[in-house]
Amino acid sequence: xxxxxxxxxxxxxxxxxxxxxxxxxxxxxxxxxxxxxxxxxxxxxxxxxxxxxxxxxxxxxxxxxxxxxxxxxxxxxxxxxxxxxxxxxxxxxxxxxxxxxxxxxxxxxxxxxxxxxxxxxxxxxxxxxxxxxxxxxxxxxxxxxxxxxxxxxxxxxxxxxxxxxxxxxxxxxxxxxxxxxxxxxxxxxxxxxxxxxxxxxxxxxxxxxxxxxxxxxxxxxxxxxxxxxxxxxxxxxxxxxxxxxxxxxxxxxxxxxxxxxxxxxxxxxxxxxxxxxxxxxxxxxxxxxxxxxxxxxxxxxxxxxxxxxxxxxxxxxxxxxxxxxxxxxxxxxxxxxxxxxx
Length: 342
Known about the structure:
disordered N terminus
């Protein structure tokens, strides 16, 4: 028995050392980008923008605290549906830190998702951790499509659309519906195995994919089964998680509402939703930009002009949202290191 325990410890040690190294690299990367962004914006400008909204800034920060709680509930419901136990506040820690890494890495999911898998696998194993993270990421992305669809329909309902705007809205609605169909098909039929088959046809990856060991291929198939099972046999958890992600997007619209009101302009919640929806669509078209540099400003300005507000207001609004992001990135980096080895 003692020999077995010693062997288990020896096998676990390299994995934990590797995880610790990856965590430190992610922490240094995130901290470096955070410092760079603060330097680029400037301490004085950050402070002046916070003063421009006054006490409203606490509400703006608080909105995203609520959003992250709802995000955590969405992911936690997926984990719990697998009859797995992970402390809720651990899942919340991984949620906030994961989003912080996504903010500071190109192509969005390049940092946060591997980090979440690495942390979660200590509780439920690599395969189930990978499946739950992929499922949650799919929920998060799929809720984008429902949100864009809602924003486009609200624009059509509330704004007198020009012929060009009507064409754009039609394209948004059609694209959102197609993407929703593709994602739901992925939930029903599986996604990971098909993705590996697709990658096996890419010249530079073909050899590596085809040379995967039988054990690795079995793990990939297990992950795919977990994805299919959530939609097939755990529909309540599936729709609850998707609903929570959509709710998080609705709550996040309060940020724009509070900022615009704090700056002395009138705006309705519906208009805030339209601004967030259209600017989110614009930013995600150019998803490779870390922290959506430049894309958000243009998207918010375009959205404001669509609903009849001064487009120049978008600069001030986007700056305050960026400062809010800096706060949550900083918090995410800090909590990443708290009890990271426990």
